[in-house]
């Protein structure tokens, strides 16, 4: 049996760790690794058109599966392109292993062609970043990188010079067991007892939930029922906590709606569950706050805490709920549910007024029809910008759908490459992008990746011919919009020229049929929807806080554009409020 080289050993270790795809763009320093992938049946090379797309795709796959994924870039400029997608994966807590191929080891530090220093460049967007300088070092470095990515939920980067990748691997390397799953973490009894006392002493408790509530829906609902707490959420918590939730009071933050802001400010005790919500201006500073998080470095970095609790949300609530006293009064909860319904009644009018006849199409209408037409288990990938607004307001979670975006890093152009990674996990599952014209055109080259691999991704392109969110930011700051206009082609014709299905929608009556036709199509498809560039509106009074950072109550809606079916859910929850 021929002796393995380092690249073959590298690929074997990735495969044993559960990696099924390596996303990247080939290059000379990567050739030994790509060739090793070619000869290994357990792992596939996915050839994208831009390394940034490779990192976004790997991050999306990791978020869908919860398992380790991998991407690669060749030396210098090749692996530099990975950095934006890796930042996003790292901040989304997606376990991703990145291979940053490197120049010949003998030339490092001598200003060689394409020389960079990846072990320095990637340190801020990774838990672990190391250079392999000898074949004997590789297995232990790679194992350590894998365990950092899996155990700490984020990115690890391994820099591997191309010449070392091609060298013979050392004989009789021990096959060390790899950690590929995480344990549950529960707080100590003393912390739980202190949290119980805070809850029992508070008359009004509010829960505010983030992505850390994934898998804990039942536990959150049981706890909310016991302490009669309204439940708000951040954008990354929407898919996990909003559905089947009789305590829902909406979302807080820049895209907020409903009564989440009021519920967090009018309570006696605010409990933050699995959220690293970044906008501290929306958090109260005059109520008691407890925070539960699996990552201790997140505790207290957004607001002053009365109690920090280190543990995962599901296990913490399993331990906590039996210990707290059942609260008898629903007065605060019912008040917040009523405020929530009233708030949604007000903003929904903008959506219902002749919206099905308006040309150019209201983007709110497009998002609402898309929500009704898409599968119950669809994966939605969302471009940063105005598409975040439509996703937050109109996509209806149900416990089976997934909603993925660059919600923590806030990068443009993420939706299309994320859809590649999401679709490769399951070709039978519907994957739909909500793409803006700015984001789509930035990484449009990877639409060709959909065609090359015949991935049945459906791109729904909201074309308002502008960078809409940036334009809004300028307007709120009192500045005239400048540099935000896009001159766009007929994207449907572009899609057809690439070998995919393309359809252009300019009138509301065309929309439902175009979406259904695209969803029935077995391959990739793009629905180019021309939307109203004036679909933004500013509150009647612009506050100083808005100008400096959008720090305003969610009751003053920044984007007056309706809230889709959430009003129906609020009305339904309100009907369950006991009457005197």
Automatic annotation (TrEMBL):
<dbReference type="InterPro" id="IPR012001">
    <property type="entry name" value="Thiamin_PyroP_enz_TPP-bd_dom"/>
</dbReference>
<dbReference type="InterPro" id="IPR047212">
    <property type="entry name" value="TPP_POXB-like"/>
</dbReference>
<dbReference type="Pfam" id="PF00205">
    <property type="entry name" value="TPP_enzyme_M"/>
</dbReference>
<feature type="domain" description="Thiamine pyrophosphate enzyme central">
    <location>
        <begin position="192"/>
        <end position="320"/>
    </location>
</feature>
<dbReference type="InterPro" id="IPR047211">
    <property type="entry name" value="POXB-like"/>
</dbReference>
<dbReference type="InterPro" id="IPR029035">
    <property type="entry name" value="DHS-like_NAD/FAD-binding_dom"/>
</dbReference>
<feature type="domain" description="Thiamine pyrophosphate enzyme TPP-binding">
    <location>
        <begin position="383"/>
        <end position="529"/>
    </location>
</feature>
<dbReference type="InterPro" id="IPR012000">
    <property type="entry name" value="Thiamin_PyroP_enz_cen_dom"/>
</dbReference>
<keyword id="KW-0786">Thiamine pyrophosphate</keyword>
<dbReference type="Pfam" id="PF02775">
    <property type="entry name" value="TPP_enzyme_C"/>
</dbReference>
<dbReference type="GO" id="GO:0000287">
    <property type="term" value="F:magnesium ion binding"/>
</dbReference>
<comment type="similarity">
    <text>Belongs to the TPP enzyme family.</text>
</comment>
<dbReference type="GO" id="GO:0003824">
    <property type="term" value="F:catalytic activity"/>
</dbReference>
<keyword id="KW-0670">Pyruvate</keyword>
<dbReference type="InterPro" id="IPR011766">
    <property type="entry name" value="TPP_enzyme_TPP-bd"/>
</dbReference>
<dbReference type="Pfam" id="PF02776">
    <property type="entry name" value="TPP_enzyme_N"/>
</dbReference>
<feature type="domain" description="Thiamine pyrophosphate enzyme N-terminal TPP-binding">
    <location>
        <begin position="5"/>
        <end position="115"/>
    </location>
</feature>
<dbReference type="InterPro" id="IPR047210">
    <property type="entry name" value="TPP_PYR_POXB-like"/>
</dbReference>
<protein>
    <submittedName>
        <fullName>Pyruvate dehydrogenase</fullName>
    </submittedName>
</protein>
<dbReference type="InterPro" id="IPR029061">
    <property type="entry name" value="THDP-binding"/>
</dbReference>
<dbReference type="GO" id="GO:0030976">
    <property type="term" value="F:thiamine pyrophosphate binding"/>
</dbReference>
């Amino acid at each position: 049996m021929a002796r393995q080289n380092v690249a073959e050993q590298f690929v074997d270790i990735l495969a044993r760790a559960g990696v099924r795809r390596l996303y990247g763009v080939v290059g000379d320093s990567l050739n030994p690794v790509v060739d090793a992938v070619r000869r290994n049946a357990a792992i596939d090379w996915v050839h994208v058109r831009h390394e940034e797309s490779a990192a976004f795709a790997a991050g999306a796959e990791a978020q869908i599966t919860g398992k380790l994924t991998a991407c690669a870039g060749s030396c210098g400029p090749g692996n530099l392109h990975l950095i934006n997608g890796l930042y996003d994966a790292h901040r989304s807590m997606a376990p991703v292993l990145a291979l940053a191929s490197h120049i010949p080891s003998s030339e490092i530090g001598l200003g060689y062609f394409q020389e960079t220093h990846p072990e320095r460049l990637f340190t801020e967007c990774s838990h672990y970043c190391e250079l392999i300088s000898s074949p004997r070092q590789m297995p232990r470095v790679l194992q350590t990188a894998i365990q950092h990515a899996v155990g700490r939920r984020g990115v690890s980067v391994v820099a591997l010079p191309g010449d070392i990748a091609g060298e013979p691997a050392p004989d009789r390397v021990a096959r060390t067991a790899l950690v590929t799953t995480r344990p549950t973490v529960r707080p100590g009894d003393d912390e739980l007892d202190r949290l119980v006392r805070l809850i029992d002493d508070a008359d009004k408790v509010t829960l505010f939930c983030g992505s850390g509530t994934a898998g804990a829906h039942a536990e959150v609902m049981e706890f909310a029922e016991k302490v009669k707490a309204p439940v708000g959420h951040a954008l990354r918590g929407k898919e996990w906590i909003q559905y089947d939730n009789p305590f829902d009071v909406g979302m807080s933050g820049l895209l907020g709606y409903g009564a989440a802001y009021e519920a967090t400010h009018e309570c006696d005790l605010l409990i933050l569950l699995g959220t690293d919500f970044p906008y501290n201006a929306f958090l109260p500073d005059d109520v008691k706050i407890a925070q539960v998080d699996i990552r201790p470095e997140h505790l207290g970095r957004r607001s002053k805490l009365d109690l920090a609790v280190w543990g995962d949300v599901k296990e913490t609530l399993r331990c906590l709920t039996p210990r707290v006293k059942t609260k008898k009064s629903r007065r605060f909860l019912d008040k917040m549910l009523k405020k929530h319904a009233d708030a949604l009644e007000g903003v929904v009018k903008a959506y219902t007024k002749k919206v099905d006849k308006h040309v150019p199409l209201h983007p709110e209408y497009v998002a609402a029809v898309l929500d009704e037409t898409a599968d119950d288990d669809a994966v939605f990938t969302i471009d940063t910008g105005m598409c975040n607004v439509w996703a937050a307001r109109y996509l209806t979670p149900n416990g089976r759908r997934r909603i993925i975006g660059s919600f923590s890093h806030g990068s443009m152009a993420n939706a299309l490459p994320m859809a590649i990674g999401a679709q490769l996990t399951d070709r039978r599952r519907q994957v739909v992008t909500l793409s803006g014209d700015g984001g789509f055109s930035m990484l449009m080259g990877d639409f060709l990746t959909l065609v090359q691999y015949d991935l049945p991704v459906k791109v729904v392109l909201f074309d308002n011919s502008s960078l809409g969110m940036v334009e809004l930011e300028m307007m709120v700051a009192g500045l005239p919009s400048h540099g935000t206009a896009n001159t766009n082609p007929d994207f449907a014709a572009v899609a057809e020229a690439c070998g995919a299905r393309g359809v252009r929608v300019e009138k509301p009556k065309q929309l439902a049929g175009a979406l259904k036709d695209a969803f029935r199509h077995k391959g990739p498809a793009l629905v180019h929807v021309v939307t109203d560039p004036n679909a933004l509106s500013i509150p009647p009074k612009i506050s100083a806080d808005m100008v400096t950072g959008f720090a305003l109550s969610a009751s003053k809606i920044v984007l007056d554009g309706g809230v889709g079916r959430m009003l129906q859910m609020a009305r339904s929850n309100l009907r369950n409020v006991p009457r005197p």
